[in-house]
Design brief:
single chain; 153 residues; alpha+beta; four-stranded mixed sheet; three-stranded antiparallel sheet; 1 helix; extended
């Protein structure tokens, strides 16, 4: 009977060593060929306190990342019932901090906060002005920037 327990204990030790050799809880230094994830069409789910907090879809909308939602419907889908910040970024005070929107590799929109002692926030549309809409596409205000040249006599 002692041989069976000893054999079982050795088998568990070998299994544990194999698992920890692949992914250590104290940190890893993977090569380019190693990764954390799946090799098939499975979602990668992250839990804390046994509740799912984040999912990276491997089926359906592959590559969609959801935080606080089990089935994200966009590449980044944030969902919460908590009050406070839903999304936050922190950038260096001495630099211009900006978010940019690109389509087809071309910048279309920029929201930024300038640096300095008197910072300001600005929105910039790089083509066709900046407009504010209600009801889907009812334009309520539109702002254009036109450059004028002046001749000096």
């Amino acid at each position: 009977m002692k041989k069976i327990y000893l054999s079982f204990a050795l088998m568990l030790c070998g299994l544990f060593q194999n698992i920890t050799a692949q992914w250590a809880l104290t940190g890893n230094a993977p090569t380019a060929a190693q990764f954390f994830g799946t090799t098939g069409a499975q979602d990668v789910r992250f839990r804390t306190n046994n509740a799912q907090r984040m999912v990276l879809l491997g089926t359906g909308n592959v590559g969609f990342l959801g935080l606080g939602i089990a089935t994200p419907t966009s590449f980044l889908h944030l969902n919460t019932t908590a009050t406070g910040d839903l999304f936050r970024t922190d950038g260096p005070t001495a630099s211009i901090n900006r978010w940019q929107l690109f389509t087809g590799g071309t910048e279309r929109f920029r929201l930024y906060s300038d640096a300095g002692t008197s910072p300001f926030m600005a929105m910039r549309s790089l083509s066709n002005g900046l407009r504010f809409e209600t009801g889907g596409s009812d334009i309520r205000m539109r702002s254009f920037s036109h450059l004028h040249s002046t001749k000096c006599a």
